[in-house]
Amino acid sequence: MRTVLVVEDSPTELAMVSDCLRTAGYQVLPASGGTEAQAQLGHGPIDLIVLDLILPDVNGYDLFRTLQRDDRTKATPIVMLTQRVSMPEEYYGRTLGAAAYLKKPFQPDRLLSEAERLAPLG
Fold first, then answer.
1. What 3-state class would DSSP assign to 23?
2. Please, what's the largest Cα pairwise distance for the chain?
3. Which pLDDT score is estimated for 60?
4. Collapsed DSSP state (helix, strand, coil) of residue 31
5. What is the pLDDT of residue 93?
6. How many Cβ atoms are within 10 Å of 42's Cβ, its own excluded?
7. pTM for the full model?
């Protein structure tokens, strides 16, 4: 089973993204912010991270860089999922190394397509 860390501060969006991934067969570790996300890293290997960029306790880009430096997640693909939809924002996210940049409101088919591409179930 593949494990996905979902970092999203909106309880509704966190539930929707998590349910979408669980229904497809992924194990989901939910986190409502950066502190909670880092605490989830102790639960074993993570195969994919879905990261909102607007979080209450940390800038999403800062958390992205922290995850890239952490030995437990530096090789883990990160999908940015955000309301920031401008081309400069997407360019910056991809420059940092985002494996995908998805815009809200999230489209389940697109999210699952990226999840399967980056952390295939079988």
1. helix
2. 35
3. 87
4. strand
5. 66
6. 7
7. 0.93
Residues 62-74: tens digit of each pLDDT: 999 999 999 999 9
Kindly state the tokens that stand for 13. 């969006």
- Selected from 3.40.50.2300, 3.90.930.60, 3.50.50.60, 1.20.272.10, the CATH number assigned to the domain covering 3-109 reads 3.40.50.2300
Burial of residue 80 (number of CB atoms within 10 Å: 0-12, 13-18, 19+): buried
Contacts of residue 60, defined as CB under 8 A and 6 or more positions apart, other chains included, come to 7, 51, 52, 53, 54, 80, 82
Average pLDDT over residues 78-99: 75
- Whole-angstrom CA distances from 39 to 22, 27, 107, 119 are 20, 16, 28, 21
**101: exposed, middle or buried (C-beta count within 10 Å: 0-12, 13-18, 19+)?**
buried
Mean pLDDT of the chain: 91
